[in-house]
Amino acid sequence: MSLQIKSFDNYKRVYDYSVKEPEHFWADIAENFQWRKKWDKVLEWNFKDPDIKWFQGAKLNITENCIDRHLNTLGEKPAIIWEPNDPEESHRVLTYKQLHDKVCQFANVLKNNGIEKGDRVCIYLPMVPELAISVLACARIGAIHSVVFGGFSAQSIADRINDASCKLVITADGGFRGNKDIPLKAIIDDALVQCQSVNKVIVLTRSRTPVSMIKGRDVWWEDEIRKVETLGNPVCPAEEMDAEDVLFILYTSGSTGKPKGVVHTTAGYMVYAGYTFANVFQYQPGEVYFCTADIGWITGHSYIVYGPLSQGATTLMFEGIPTYPTPSRFWDIVEKYKVNILYTAPTAIRSLMSFGDEPLKGKDFSSIKKLGSVGEPINEEAWHWFDEKIGDKKAPIADTWWQTENGGIMISPIAGVTPTKPGYATLPLPGIQPVLVDENGKELEGNDVSGNLCIKFPWPGMLRTTYGDHERCRQTYFSTYENMYFTGDGCLRDEDGYYRITGRVDDVLNVSGHRIGTAEVENAINMHSDVVESAVVGYPHEIKGQGVYAYVILGQSEHDPELTRKNILQTVTRIIGAIAKPDKIQFVSGLPKTRSGKIMRRILRKIAEGETANLGDTSTLLDPAVVDEIKTGAL
Ligand code: PRX
């Protein structure tokens, strides 16, 4: 069976087959990949433990699928096009052959620095080709990568490094994002004060920011490359991996506690990322594909690196941000490389919309054939703007719903093949069996229903565990509803059977497409010495989708509110990173709590949303008067 579905009828047939005969279906799909040895069994699973195994007995290496197998046919074709933050700096192109050489070289560097199969490697790099090279070099030798987004603080990195006991860190002196120069190495130095497991740091030269190198621990990327060059062995044979060997860990926020390390394994993830990429974007040979995400997030893992490369695509990596040096930046890139497929986020679209039509004037969008959106619900206004201004109403928009835990796109139009509907992720991809359930776990059948979104059958790209804590995985995803994976999202299935994701139903915020747990932000705010207690909720934000609203109780001493506000923001930046900074901080004397001491977030959410008229029943509150005070002081 070919990977790409070519008509709506074909979709219906394939979908049907995928539900009736999932194992045959996925085995057919898996035939499109390169295996050292094929599987003995396609699937073994239960959602109770959970225990999920795909393609058991198979042997492979994902980098042979992403690089080696293309060398004969696509060796001289661009694999990665890299556009720097500063448009004045030269761009770079890596052909598949060059990518192969660089990945092998750096894989040898990792080996020389003591990294073996199964070791965990933390990658904290800017969006430069060496980030993709590092990820692939780890996969080449069977090391497990844990990429940490460049916007996270030293404390967040330390937590992640310690959770996975990483042995080695790959970073750069600094990184550029817009007009900012982020001192990555200095941040790593701060983080490593708390990390015993790391004994090597490889530092790439990028920003030429002065750094301190610690003897015996820190080495320069360039020096290490020179060493392997002198040894004169450019090839690094790919390690033979079992289908269920761990490929990577990626940390993501939940409603409680610290971020958890979502674990993805080799074969299932590869098949799922590759299949969904080929299908959703209907990638054609020679097309230039531009995903604007950062490799620090799952979208970058699956749809900048593994998905596109597994399909021999040309993937464009951009170091900067949409508005630097001007809000025409994305469109300049589209024009410069004749981008055919653009995959971005609603928050970026809304931010660019806010500049009006001026930045679009004179730009050539004629190369655009397909568009994609990911990370959060796309509002209809943004959908239409994207459709009209960027796609000239000719480029289908794939509004792709999925999660870090899913490994790849789950519910989405297939570009140009299945229908689109503004604001809707539309229909499940083949192999995906979504169900809506009510509070009691009862499945809501038929159309025109709303409920909590679950998936009732495994798919190859799903998470296998949360690193070091399988029970947490079970509790978070598999215990709310029996025999189902619970997404944490609310969802509507309309009269046509199309899905519209309405947002999280747990205490997780989605700020500019980034997942942030309210508990995490509260913990960070509470670190501030003047803070007694805090409660964080989300509220609708024009650009970010959701903003962070913090209600904060301060201690008895005198406070300058402005100064305290600034200090709290600094604390959050230091503990988590700037992405989690509250947009609004309201100082309050108390929080609405039940007699058992539970904060009634529903009330706080309504006040933050400006809906103070109907707060529902407040009679069970310990101190109902506090609600009036909060209402009066609302920002
Ligand atoms: O609430 C959903 C929202 O983003 C959450 C997943 O976040 P994360 O794991 O960081 O992955 C983001 C990129 C895959 C989901 O639970 N979300 C993601 N895509 C959409 C979406 N909400 C609505 N529509 C989407 N297309």
Radius of gyration using CA atoms only: 24 Å
> Helix- and strand-based class?
alpha/beta
Strand content: 15-25%
Largest sheet: 8 strands, mixed
The CATH superfamily of the largest domain turns out to be: ANL, N-terminal domain
Number of domains: 2
Bound molecules: adenosine-5'-monophosphate-propyl ester
Enumerate the strands of the largest sheet in spatial order, edge to edge or round the barrel.
12-11-8-6-7-14-15-23
Which architecture of the largest domain per CATH?
3-Layer(aba) Sandwich
End-to-end distance: 57 Å
Average predicted confidence as pLDDT: 96
- Assign an overall shape: globular
| CATH topology name of the largest domain | Rossmann fold
Q: State the CATH class of the largest domain.
A: Alpha Beta
Number of E-type strands: 30
Topology:
Blueprint: H1 8-20, H2 22-30, E1 41-46, E2 51-56, E3 59-60, H3 62-66, H4 71-74, E4 78-83, E5 92-95, H5 96-112, E6 120-124, H6 129-141, E7 144-147, H7 154-164, E8 168-172, E9 175-177, E10 180-182, H8 184-192, E11 200-204, E12 218-220, H9 221-231, E13 241-242, E14 246-252, E15 260-265, H10 266-280, E16 288-291, H11 298-310, E17 314-318, H12 329-337, E18 341-344, H13 346-353, E19 370-374, H14 380-390, E20 397-400, E21 434-437, E22 449-455, E23 465-466, H15 470-478, E24 485-493, E25 499-504, E26 508-511, E27 514-517, H16 518-526, E28 531-541, E29 545-554, H17 561-575, E30 584-587, H18 601-608, H19 625-633
Parallel strand pairs: 4-17, 6-7, 6-8, 7-14, 8-11, 11-12, 16-17, 16-18, 18-19, 19-20, 29-30
Antiparallel strand pairs: 1-2, 3-13, 4-5, 9-10, 14-15, 15-23, 21-22, 22-24, 24-25, 26-27, 28-29
Helix pairs in contact: 1-2, 5-6, 5-9, 7-8, 10-11, 13-14
